[in-house]
Amino acid sequence: MAAHRIVFANEKGGSGKSTSAVHVAVALAAQGRRVAAIDLDTRQRTLGRYLENRAAYARAAGLDLALPMHETFDPARSAPIGERLDALAAEVDVLVVDTPGRDDPHVRAAISTADTLVTPINDSFVDLDLIGQVDAESYRVKRPSFYAELVWDARKARAKADGATVDWVVLRNRLQHLEARNMKRVAAALGELAKRVGFRVIPGLSERVIYRELFPKGLTLLDLKAIGAEAGLGHVAARGELRELLGGLQLPDEGRAEAA
After folding, report:
1. Is the residue at 254 inside a domain?
2. Which tens digits make up the pLDDT trace of 128-156?
3. Less Cβ crowding at N or C end of the chain, within 10 Å?
4. Inter-helix orientation angle 233-249/17-30, to 10°
5. Which of 107-121, 173-187, 237-251 has the lowest mean pLDDT?
6. Is 260 a member of any domain?
7. 62 CB contacts (<8 Å, ≥6 apart)?
8. Model-level pTM?
9. 258 within a domain of the structure (yes/no)
């Protein structure tokens, strides 16, 4: 069976896209699935560096950490993006693709092959504007924005290519525990836009210092034993968020050995 392709894409930076992609890739590998992860951001390489840190720390500490196959795409040396994605997908159960915060042909090609497209956004109207314009007075959605149109074009390309559909998931990342009124307005606008454009909304990962602290060692919230004595209630709560995120993606069970 062909690999299920999960593409994390958002043209706006700072949405927690790479952090979400790494945690999903590692969590799926920990379930016993064969997972490959590819970073299309040749400049920042956040996903690639995160997993490189993870491999190095596991070797140095003698730990057996779940680790997906991973690479950073190099357009100057690699096969064309479509061929490279197909080659990776042929070897695994799940292919996780992290994209840069910009529009380029490689990103569009990846989106057009996605089974699940994940667009993380911060819980604000600034990020919401990427996919839908909101009226300043009523906070009602006026019209879809350019990114929704890009995804629509990618969905049409996918349907034309093999008749399949792209499950578009908007991930409400970095939720704050303040400004409840604004959160409700954003949620209402997202719900309205979801019906018009055709995506699902699921909760993502909160704004926590934990994620930045784990990066140098390449650890994730699933590695509480490796984190050791430093693991506190915040880590446990954040791990619950990750489990909820994974459940919300509604991925097929093929290749899953056991729950993480």
Report:
1. no
2. 898 999 988 888 889 999 999 999 999 99
3. N
4. 80
5. 173-187
6. no
7. none
8. 0.91
9. no
